[in-house]
Amino acid sequence: MSLRIDLDHSRFRQIIRGKIRQNLRKFITRGEILGKQGKDVVSIPLPHIEIPRLRHSERQVGGVGQGEGKEGEPIGGDGQKGEGQGRAGQEEGSHVLEAEVTLDELADILGEELALPRIVNKGKSKIVDLKERYTGIRRVGPSSLRHFKRTFKQALKRELAMGTYNPKRPIVVPTPEDFRFRSWNIEEEPIANAVIIYMMDVSGSMGDEQKEIVRIESFWIDTWIRRHYKGLETRYIIHDATAREVDRDTFFRTRESGGTMISSAYKLCHQIIEADYPASDWNIYLFHFSDGDNWSLDDTMQCIDILKNKLLPVSNLFGYGQVESPYGSGQFIKDLREHLGKDERVVTSEIRNRDGIIPSIQAFLGKGR
Question: Does 63 have pLDDT greater than 50?
Fold first, then answer.
């Protein structure tokens, strides 16, 4: 019975996985992620899965809804009318089934559907993790770590040496002296960690729809990169004419007015990296979202200089996503492509609307950096 349940559960997981993959592009473009539940699990809507349901016999043999009483009278109630309006309907309601999947599963589905290459990190870092590995055998230990094969082998050797082993009646009874237990050693294992620093223009030309596009895209970028690193940190910078670091919620909800000086965000980004994320220990990913407006050509050239000499040398990837806005000029992406277009670490994408989210994700993550 247990095996049968496991097989049914495995088959149901495969059905869910297929439904998620089938509707993944819709989930991405419409933002139909219902929200995280716990650290590593998300719920997403799967409206087309038919779930098992009970059906009553057609024979009229009594039960709820039959017997004495008038139509519409509450069962076990006092007959008082409720506060609702209109007559009771007879059609079945439409329901959305939520399926829980881990972020790792979601990342794998994203990679398969968008044909994303695995990320090749820059190597092991100097950050270490302590791991317990069972690499030896001891004569003492808890019963839970008893090594039955080694114990039996030791008992057999003892009986053979003492001449008490009877091949015709091969019963081997271990004594406490024969017991052997697994032992462990604590080893230091280098791990590769990563940090993502998101930067976004929050000047008056970036509206709510543009921020929603950034929110959706950043979720999927996080999900894919987290799949490849044991530890992932995220930092958030917003800017108009000045830049400041904020938390995630503030990052997507802030709306300000005023001019735009992109170099202020790049300067702050460089300060954060220098203070907390040395390039020898961290895989660094930078993503900047803007509508393409900048204060002046001089500030744009300062941005190019900061990228070329300070940010790109320490980064795995710099992704610039230009979200189309009715108020943005769109010039900044042209300047980036002109001055840094040949650098493999620089990836640019134009996101005209929600349909542009998937091509943008493929552009940013398609190099496996």
Answer: yes
- pLDDT value of position 112: 85
Q: Which of 144, 172, 188 is the last residue of a domain?
A: 188
Handedness of CA 18, 21, 24, 25 (dihedral sign): negative
* Dihedral pair phi/psi, residue 247, rounded to 5°: -85, 175
Pair 131, 39: CB distance under 8 Å: no
Q: What span, in angstroms and rounded, lies between the C-alpha atoms of 241 and 323? A: 18
Contacts of 157 by beta carbon, 8 Å cutoff, 6+ apart: none
- Between CA 244 and CA 185 the distance in angstroms is 46
What are the tens digits of pLDDT across the range 163-217?
Answer: 888 888 888 889 989 999 988 777 666 566 889 999 999 887 787 888 889 989 9
Write the secondary structure of 128-175 as one string of H (helix), E (strand) and C (coil). Answer: EEEEEEEEEEECCCCHHHECHHHHHHHHHHHHHHHCCCCCCCCCCCCC
- Find tokens 């010039």 and name the residue: 331
My answer on whether 306 and 252 are in the same domain is yes
Contact assessment for residue 204 and residue 254, using Cβ atoms and an 8 Å cutoff: no
AA letter at 309: N
Res. 66: pLDDT tops 80: no
Q: Higher-confidence residue: 193 or 57? A: 193
Domain end, chosen from 115, 141, 163, is at: 115
Whole-structure pTM value: 0.67
Min mean pLDDT across 19-33, 106-120, 160-174 is at 19-33
User: Nearest-5° angle of CA 201, CA 203, CA 209?
Assistant: 75
The whole-chain average pLDDT of the chain stands at: 80
Rounded to whole angstroms, the Cα distance separating 130 from 120 reads 23
Report how many domains make up the chain. 3
Q: Quick one: tokens of 271?
A: 């300060």
